[in-house]
Design goal:
The chain is α+β, with helices and mostly antiparallel strands. The protein has 19 helices and eleven strands. The protein binds protoporphyrin IX containing FE.
Length: 508
């Protein structure tokens, strides 16, 4: 009898405890939801928020970022608020310097960002703040800063251009594929092969003549697109619930991430088995100081993301602009013919450094089409930006390289023109303040692959422009972008390819 009483008391105590636990969880969740809703100010009826909520901006603008650019150009301070998103967006270089350098500690990537990308990037450099970021930054900058690794990277790029890109373009110019290619797709294949060889020492062969469908490249695309789409849902609770139930886009995302992770893990265990001390790729270098395989995987996946889509996006924007600016193309050719030897296909590192006009053209195209169109941070404490904008603790602050490139107050009245000369003084390339041009970010977290990326871009442009005529074969007068972590053109970039000068001989 005593045992029964004790057991029923125990049962009722545990039932009370469970009830309390669930009530507390429910109240806490409701409270968090309330705070979230209050912070978003969903009742805001200002013109910007109304336009955002009703999507009426789509009537006038092709891209979301073009609508933002329009709002930012109209704003006297170059800063606007989208209250329903709890987001302050700025194009003011003083604000950018303040966020990225002066008060760097108050503007980390923050928890909302790392939660969105956490499943794909784990603890990789892109997704962490604090000590873990400092450690990876130090290691990565030692590696990427070394002359040996830059030489190694350029060898990979040169080989990929010579053995795959040029033959593919030559066969297209000779009439295969009706002389037309999706250049965005080709550039993504090229940069994926390059970054995989560089990071893992693995060749996925995406740019082989048959243009094979690569499972890893597809999984990687899908994972970054669906991760970026998480950031666009009205409330994070929507995607978190789908993830919990493993349904819809979250189920697909999980599958794609598994493919990426499996490949990375396989590479790591192969390297361990075969030995890594004599290998030059980034993974082998990191393996000599890190033993944790999951951490290694996260680091390498971040590099894949960093180096693939950015370079391809930058080159896609470049060829889009070049196609409608034949005078820029002629000046690039003049420089290439002056610096490179006759018959030379790909420039050397030293020759690239002497190509000031090409450098200006590449910088100029990324001013108008930055691969990373905007970047957000989350304020740790209440703050006031240099232009007087109040920032509430916990809210999102976004600086906007895409809109900055189109601001008269930043670049003058001819800011919409593609004009490589604006970067030259007496024929010599002159960089500008990085907070005015935060295409590679700036300050403490400035891109570590900047020099590598520029060298890769210039090698590709030099090799293509010296030998081929490339013309965009699309009726669109503006680029339309897909939502994603990096700029990606909707529908690709169809181009016609011809051997240099061959079209001039055509009587039509
Ligand atoms: C045109 C090409 C590129 C552009 C425009 C670019 C731009 C950027 C931007 C905007 C960031 C800051 C991102 C953020 O904090 O969320 C960044 C960070 C970074 N980039 Fe790049 N990137 C390019 C190519 C590369 C390449 C080829 C590599 C490596 C091989 C690379 C390695 C990195 C790394 C490691 C970081 C993290 C730095 C940190 O958080 O401290 N990037 N890049």
């Amino acid at each position: 009898m005593r045992v029964e009483i004790a057991s029923s008391m125990l049962q009722s105590t545990s039932a009370t405890f469970i009830n309390l636990f669930f009530s507390f969880t429910a109240i806490f969740s409701l409270f968090s939801l309330l705070i979230f809703i209050l912070r978003m100010k969903p009742w805001c009826n200002c013109e910007t928020c109304r336009s955002y909520l009703t999507m009426s901006w789509t009537g006038e603008f092709k891209n979301f970022i073009d609508w933002y650019t329009h709002l930012l150009r109209k704003s006297p301070t170059g800063t606007v608020h989208v209250h329903v998103l709890g987001n302050t967006i700025t194009t003011n270089p003083e604000n950018v310097e303040y966020i990225l350098k002066t008060r760097f500690d108050n503007y980390p990537k923050g928890k909302p960002f790392s939660t969105i990308l956490g499943d794909l990037l784990g603890r990789g450099i892109f997704n962490v703040d604090g000590e873990s970021w400092k450690f990876q930054r130090k290691m990565a900058s030692l590696e990427l800063g070394s002359v040996a690794i830059r030489t190694y990277a350029l060898e990979i790029v040169t080989d990929e251009i010579q053995s795959r890109l040029l033959p593919l373009l030559a066969s297209t110019a000779a009439g295969q594929r009706d002389g037309v290619l999706d250049l965005q797709d080709i550039l993504r294949r090229l940069s994926f092969d390059n970054i995989c060889k560089f990071s893992f020492g693995l060749d996925p062969g995406c740019l082989l003549p048959s243009l094979p469908i690569s499972r890893i490249a597809m999984a990687f695309d899908e994972a970054s697109r669906l991760s970026a789409e998480r950031a666009m849902t009205a409330s994070p609770m929507a995607w978190k619930l789908k993830r919990l139930l493993n349904i819809g886009s979250e189920k697909i995302l999980k599958g794609a991430i598994n493919v990426v992770n499996d490949l990375a893990e396989e590479m790591i265990s192969q390297r361990r088995y075969m030995g890594f001390s004599t290998r030059k790729d980034l993974l082998s270098r990191f393996m000599s100081s890190i033993n944790d395989d999951i951490y290694l995987r996260d680091i390498v996946v971040s590099f894949l993301l960093a180096g693939r889509d950015t370079v391809a996006a930058a080159l896609t924007g470049f060829f889009w602009l070049l196609s409608s600016h034949p005078q820029v193309e002629s000046l690039i050719r003049e420089e290439l013919d002056r610096i490179m030897d006759p018959g030379q296909k790909v420039p050397t590192f030293d020759q690239i450094r002497r190509m000031h006009y090409l450098n200006g053209a590449v910088y100029e195209s990324m001013r108008l089409f930055p691969p990373v169109q905007f970047d957000s941070k989350y304020a740790v404490e209440d703050d006031i930006l240099p232009d007087g904008t109040f920032i509430q603790k916990g809210t999102r602050v976004t600086y906007h390289p895409y809109a900055m490139g189109r601001m008269e107050r930043v670049w003058g009245s001819n800011c919409l023109e593609f004009k490589p000369e604006r970067w030259l003084q007496e024929g010599v390339f002159m960089p500008v303040c990085p907070f005015k041009y935060p295409v590679f970010q700036a300050g403490a977290r400035v891109c570590l692959g900047k020099e590598l990326a520029l060298a890769e871009m210039k090698s590709v442009v030099a090799a293509i422009v010296r030998r081929f005529d490339i013309r965009v074969a699309s009726a669109e007068s503006e680029l339309r972008f897909l939502p994603g972590l990096t700029a990606s053109v909707r529908g690709g970039l169809p181009v016609q390819v011809g051997e240099r000068g061959s079209w001039c001989l055509d009587p039509n």
